[in-house]
Design a protein that fits this description.
75% of the residues lie in helices and 2% in strands. With 477 residues, the chain is mostly helical. It folds into 2 domains: 209 residues, MFS general substrate transporter like domains (Growth Hormone, Chain: A), CATH 1.20.1250.20; 227 residues, Up-down Bundle (Growth Hormone, Chain: A), CATH 1.20.1250. A two-stranded antiparallel ribbon has the order 1-2.
Length: 477
């Protein structure tokens, strides 16, 4: 008897009981799991509150210190849960973990959508739970969705089409990001909302306490769509998960074994270690700069009203960058791509330190391009060499490395700001505090090219000899 697995695209099976020949579909996009993977990435990442992220916390009545503390909790939660969640995905199945991810997203957004105002302890508690749920959701999603999609292609003999799927996913995600950035900023403004309601012949009366929840409501709606998407997914590995699952629900020992096994494989595989370390060096440096964009834009004399439009412009770039990255992976070796990306980013960071009025926008746009290319390269190369049974765990190690490095550079940057602030205040006692702060910021940004260069040098010294020894061993076994 022949069957067709709908979750992996309904591949036709031809033959008798003795001979069953799979006929892979023409396009990977005909696979249901692939379409659902792209949809999940759009729904999970299109957060309508991103353009107003900081002021959302403040309008709920929280202080800047509480905002910083809550995001530290988010990072701490994410790092702690990153690798165990990947191991859990490899044990219990990727679909189950993604369903849990969307349930956490629904919980985190519901807290902000319905928390009553007036009691600041209650509001802070809701935001604290929101950050914990958000960190857990991000960790659970990290690697599991990619692993499910890639294994779907492998099951159909279409692994070579992963770069095309990745390109489509990144473009779709950026379209969703443009939509969320634009609409989220619009509905947050009560005056604009009231004007639109007036044009529609409806009564206005929307105030800030009402409109500040609208981006949250929209994100909550997308979380429900993400849940529906994950419920339709099916694990391409079927019932090949660990047999002890049904009896013991993924014991801690089993998770530890899978985690240690994947970590050992990374350390024993020079190419995998090199991918993670080079990508980590690029990612955390660029991500720290991206975190500081609003202050940088202000110092190059861009009006604050343009910040949201610039965020959408970055997303538009994301429609084209994945294709360029795919062409680079097809035409050049990984080593050449690292060299090109390194040279490009070092030049970009040096241009960034000039703080050119208005024209300084160009190197900042290039920073975003560098982040996108780094993300594409990492996913392409790491998925290509990782076996299915530990793919989610390996990708979680990558996420752990990225977030740990980001936490480290945050501490470094804070130390640099404090150092340069003290120095500028001592050298220019007559300067106002705002001018001292701005100059300290410029001095700290000037350290980034040297930081990236030093990081790349250290990773090169660590990885290149191991890659060379491996190449020699393969050539002369």
């Amino acid at each position: 008897m022949t069957t067709a697995n709908e979750s992996t695209g309904g591949a036709a099976l031809v033959g008798t009981s003795a001979t069953v020949l799979p006929l892979p579909p023409v396009s990977p996009y005909s696979l249901l799991n692939i379409r659902l993977f792209v949809a999940f990435r759009v729904f999970f990442n299109a957060r309508f509150y991103y353009p107003v992220f900081t002021i959302l916390f403040l309008d709920f009545g929280l202080t800047l210190e509480q905002f910083a503390l809550l995001n530290t909790v988010w990072a701490f939660t994410n790092v702690l849960a990153e690798v165990p969640s990947g191991a859990l995905a490899d044990i219990i199945g990727r679909k189950r973990l993604l369903v849990a991810t969307t349930l956490l997203m629904i919980a985190e957004m519901s807290l902000l959508a319905f928390v009553p105002l007036g009691n600041q302890q209650v509001v802070f508690g809701a935001f604290l739970a929101n950050r914990i749920f958000s960190g857990l959701a991000e960790a659970l999603a990290s690697g599991a969705d990619e692993a499910l999609a890639y294994d779907t292609l492998v099951a159909q003999g279409l692994a070579k089409d992963w770069p095309k799927v990745l390109e489509l996913q990144m473009r779709a995600q950026n379209i969703g990001y443009i939509f969320a950035m634009t609409l989220g900023a619009v509905v947050y403004d009560p005056d604009l909302v009231n004007r639109v309601l007036g044009w529609m012949g409806l009564a206005g009366g929307v105030n800030q306490q009402m409109s500040m929840r609208y981006p949250v409501y929209l994100t909550l709606l997308f979380s429900l769509l993400a849940l529906v998407t994950t419920l339709k997914m099916q694990d391409p590995l079927g019932n090949q998960e660990q047999p002890g699952l049904q009896r013991h629900a993924a014991s801690l020992w089993e998770m530890s074994r899978v985690t240690l096994q994947a970590g050992g494989w990374i350390l024993r595989t020079p190419f995998a270690l090199a991918i993670i370390l080079f990508a980590m060096t690029f990612d955390h440096t660029l991500r720290m700069i991206v975190t500081l964009t609003s202050q940088y834009y202000r110092l190059i004399h861009l009006p604050e009203a343009s910040f949201g439009l610039l965020g959408s412009a970055v997303a538009v770039l994301g429609l084209f960058v994945p294709r360029i990255a795919r062409i680079m992976t097809e035409r050049f070796s990984p080593g050449k791509n690292v060299l090109v990306l390194s040279g490009f980013l070092l030049v970009v960071l040096f241009l960034l330190t000039l703080f050119m009025p208005y024209l300084g926008l160009l190197p900042m746009m290039a920073v975003f391009i560098g982040m996108m290319v780094t993300s594409y390269f990492t996913s392409h190369y790491l998925n290509e060499i990782t076996e299915s049974h530990q793919r989610a765990t390996v990708l979680s190690f990558k996420g752990l490395a990225f977030n740990a490095a980001y936490g480290f550079i945050g501490i470094v940057f804070a130390g640099l700001i404090q150092h340069f602030r003290s120095g500028q205040a001592a050298m220019h006692p007559a300067w106002p505090v705002s001018l001292v702060e701005d100059q300290a910021f410029k001095d700290a940004i000037a350290c980034f090219p040297w930081y990236l260069g030093l990081g790349l040098l250290l990773v090169t010294l660590l990885c290149v000899p191991r890659l060379y020894r491996q190449a020699v061993k393969k050539k002369h076994p």
